[in-house]
Design goal:
The protein is mainly β. Among the domains are: about 150 residues, Jelly Rolls; about 140 residues, no CATH class; about 180 residues, no CATH class. Helices cover about 0% and strands about 45% of the residues. The protein contains 2 helices and 62 strands. The strands form 16 sheets. It has a 6-stranded antiparallel β-sheet with strand order 26-27-28-25-23-30, with no helix packed on it. The protein has a 5-stranded antiparallel β-sheet with strand order 2-55-60-57-58, with no helix packed on it. Strand 42 and strand 43 form a beta hairpin. The longest helix is centred in the first third of the chain and has 9 residues. The radius of gyration is 33 Å and the shape is flat.
């Protein structure tokens, strides 16, 4: 007899090594498995639907610090043609009846595969409400409808906070919650569209969503705002209040006229400049335009100041006072033509207040279609004064000069009127009444270019993937991430192999620029322009900008050959290096999974649209396979998630998780957005899901579907692949206590290095860890649970065998600590007929 023992740390799948050379700690194939902290093989957790269609073309967490309170809070954002913010929706159930128990459960029913709300008062079930699944239904049950059902039961009542039309099936699962004394607060989320001065700001990018070159929007957070870049739309920013174009345009040069006034002198020149203080407290200024010199002999200047219009996409929320109003905090407003204003709650109103005889800033605390309420003391406003969202126009002027003026001073700082192209400003200030000295910008403050990829390094914004210059890397001025000098702060990164830029990212002390087949490193001081550019590799590029991720100081990404890594700009190496000595330092253990040669179109993995994410100790790479054409394209069931366990240096493979729309974490909750074709209404939908973290049996479901766990370890052949053996028994150990420690393990005994060659299939009922089999209280010490489970194997003279472990049961976990295979070896190590 001989025992083969497999108790050591399991190290994931190895697709690169042959069946003869693969080390025994590695699996030959696997689906939907992960490893516990103690090293046991487990089924991965599942997820539940939590928000209906919105976004799905980039999802990210925005950590924003309130500039007034200093309190930091995270927001989940997602984009399609617009930007959406995730908001909390709660459903509170209260019991005031006389019973000592009132038990509420909200759960997935494994028989109907729908979500249900049950309420049991004492021993009587008073409500069992089927809530459906929330989507792909003719009429999903809403929270409003669920409230009607709950409120109809005597002693029970409910309250909804948030969107009442939210599907009830999206509420978080809860088991046997006692309502006596403490209400149950169920929660889910919904999407709210972020205000933008223009409709569908990302429509050009969205229109490309079915094409093979399409990539999700790239984002980066800097200076307490988040920037969005896609290569088709301008660079946009979200400052926690409004989504709008980054930077500010250069004003057009005004043609100034003279009329009778108080100014006396010669050679007067004006400058016009835009400035804005965003909701994060950042100052952004434009380049300046300079007028033609004017003389003044007891005259004043009439200046047609150019406004930034709402259609430009910049932050142009605005209103105009509808009539003169004295000592008010509620101001009647319109757009100057009895139309609707565009100021919103939270905007910073900038306007002239006659009480203080100066321009003031006040927060808009409430609004209607014809009024705004402002914070602070009462104000007095004249009819048709402009109230901007802190977007201002600075007017500068020189003083009397016999020569070309070199110094300029502030005349006034007026609100931008986004409803009219020009504001006629009368400058009648004598030289001695002018304000502060103008400090000319040292560098160009042009608006950012349109690029697919945005990143940052040492506080400066970087943009690449510019369609007109695909090898150009541009970066912002050190003064602001929204100033992009046109004639400096840019280089062409051309490694000499005709490559174009496909991804950019910082990595500690260097900045990396990736092509399809190249890896270039920039080092030095980017702020002063003292930099060094070196191409470190011309055979290891990056297939997807969205796959770039920092893993504990190491930059990881997906190349066209497989996952790669680099630290501090070093030459890229495989992530999870293959064990086969002939492949050492040449390939990752999962490189073969990315070879598309000879595959059908619907099976090929589309590396360009890979999405990466750090989930605890796991680096996830979602790589879609797709169905369709440029008219309609969507991820299909051949898509995969490759999860790298960096603690165990192990690669795992998952399926039935579509992260195509992005994935992010907020407050220890992980959300992802799928893009899926709905056969119910023949459209591509974006459904948001929340990863389960219930520590319960309900964790083990992909919304309403069972998770298909399938683990194939290395073949067992006792080091002699040509010698016949006789397997006798399999013993499986399940020692770790898990939330749901009773499960059925299906074992297929495969033989002779042939996949799907099962000569026997049997089930093993596992009950590992926990308190044992006896009912609680029966045995004062609790009886010991069984540590190992034995089952005989199909007998026969074989060369190799392996147990293939499977479980596809809804709401069942798997926990395999190790296993033994007992062989009868009556044969000598020599060939047998």
């Amino acid at each position: 007899m001989q025992l083969v023992k497999r108790f050591l740390n399991h190290k994931g799948v190895d697709l690169k090594s042959s069946d003869l050379l693969r080390p025994q700690d590695f699996a030959s194939d696997m689906r939907n498995a992960q490893y516990s902290d103690g090293g046991a093989v487990q089924k991965r957790s599942g997820y539940q639907g939590t928000a209906i269609t919105a976004g799905g073309y980039g999802t990210v967490t925005f950590l924003r610090t309130n500039p007034t309170t200093g309190i930091a809070a995270s927001e989940v954002l997602t984009v399609d043609q617009n930007l959406f913010k995730q908001g909390l929706v709660t459903f509170t159930v209260t019991y005031v009846g006389a019973s000592t128990t009132a038990i509420l459960s909200f759960y997935l029913d494994i028989l109907t595969k729908t979500y249900k709300l049950d309420m049991v008062e004492g021993e009587t079930t008073v409500l069992s409400r089927d809530c459906g699944v929330g989507f792909d239904e003719a009429s999903p049950v809403t929270l409003a409808q669920l409230k009607v059902s709950v409120d109809a039961i005597a002693g029970f009542s409910s309250v909804i906070s948030g969107a009442t039309s939210t599907p009830a099936a999206f509420l978080r699962i809860v088991r046997e919650y006692n309502l006596v004394g403490t209400p149950w607060i169920g929660d889910t989320v919904s999407w709210t569209q972020i205000n933008c001065p223009t409709a569908n700001p990302f429509s050009l990018h969205y229109a490309e969503r079915y094409k093979t070159i399409f990539e999700n929007q790239s984002t980066i957070q800097l200076n307490n705002v988040i920037y969005f870049s896609n290569g088709f739309s301008e660079l946009y920013k979200y400052d926690g209040q409004t989504l709008y174009r980054a930077g500010l345009p250069t004003p057009t040069t005004p043609t100034i006229t003279l009329s009778a006034g108080a100014v006396t002198g010669s050679n007067y020149t004006h400058k016009i400049q835009y400035t804005q203080i965003d909701a994060a407290g950042n100052f952004v200024e434009s380049n300046v335009s300079t007028s033609v010199a004017q003389n003044a002999s007891t005259q004043q200047f009439s200046i047609p100041v150019p406004n930034i219009l709402a259609a430009s996409g910049f932050n142009t929320n605005c209103a105009m006072a509808a009539g003169a109003q004295v000592a008010v905090t509620t101001i009647n407003v319109d757009n100057g033509a009895a139309g609707a204003h565009t100021l919103l709650v939270g905007d910073t109103a900038y306007f002239f207040d006659s009480v203080s005889a100066s321009y003031v800033t006040r927060t808009v605390t409430a609004r209607t279609a014809s009024t705004i309420v402002v914070s602070g003391a009462a104000v007095t406003v004249a009819d048709n004064i402009v109230i901007s969202n802190n977007l201002r126009i600075l007017i500068w002027r020189s003083k009397n000069s016999a020569t070309a003026p070199i110094s300029f001073f502030l005349v006034d700082e007026i609100p931008n009127n986004s409803f009219f192209a020009v504001t006629t400003f009368a400058d009648n200030k004598i030289d001695s009444a002018l304000g502060e000295l103008f400090l000319a910008p040292v560098t160009d403050r042009s608006v950012p270019p349109k690029g697919r990829y945005v990143s940052q390094w040492n506080g400066q914004l970087f943009i690449a993937g510019i369609s007109t210059d695909p090898t150009l890397l541009a970066w912002s001025d050190i003064e602001s991430p929204e100033y992009f000098p046109n004639n400096t702060n840019q280089i062409f990164v051309e490694p000499g192999n005709g490559d174009i830029i496909t991804a950019i990212a910082p990595n500690n002390e260097v900045f990396t620029v990736h092509g399809n087949k190249s890896f270039t490193v920039i080092s030095g001081d980017i702020g002063t322009g003292q930099i060094r550019v070196e191409t470190r590799s011309r055979d290891s590029g990056c297939a997807s900008h969205a796959s770039l991720l920092d893993i504990d100081g190491v930059l990881a990404w997906l190349s066209s050959e497989g996952p790669r890594r680099s630290a501090g700009g070093a030459i890229p190496t495989p992530l999870g290096i293959a064990i086969d000595p002939s492949e050492s330092n040449q390939a990752s253990r999962i490189d073969p999974a990315f070879v598309n040669d000879g595959l059908a179109e619907e099976v090929k993995l589309r590396l360009k649209r890979t999405v990466a994410f750090n989930l605890g100790d796991l680096y996830l790479l979602y790589v879609p396979a797709e169905t369709g054409t440029d008219a309609l394209r969507y991820p299909n069931t051949n898509s995969k998630v490759f999860a790298y366990d960096r603690v165990r240096d192990a690669w795992l493979i998952w399926n039935n998780m579509s992260l195509a729309g992005g994935i992010c974490t907020i407050n220890d909750e992980t959300y992802f957005v799928e893009r899926r074709f709905s056969s119910f209404d023949s459209t591509v939908k974006s459904i948001c899901y929340r990863l389960h973290n219930l520590i319960d049996a309900y964790d083990y479901a992909d919304n309403t579907q069972a998770i298909a766990f399938d683990y194939s370890p290395q073949w067992e052949f006792l080091g002699e692949p040509s010698v016949l053996k006789d397997p006798l028994n399999l013993r499986v150990f399940s020692l770790e206590q898990v939330a749901n420690n009773q499960f059925t393990l299906t074992v297929q005994q495969e033989i002779n290095f042939q996949n799907d060659s099962a000569v026997a299939t049997f089930d093993m009922s596992i009950s590992g860890g926990g308190y044992g089999a006896s009912s609680y209280g029966v045995d004062p010490y609790s009886d010991p649970t069984q540590d190992g489970y034995l089952h005989s194997l199909a007998r026969g003279r074989i060369r190799a065998t392996r147990p293939r472990f499977q479980n596809s049961v809804l709401q069942e976990a798997v926990a395999i600590t190790g296993w033994e295979i007992e062989f009868s070896t009556p044969y000598r190590p020599e060939f047998k007929p």
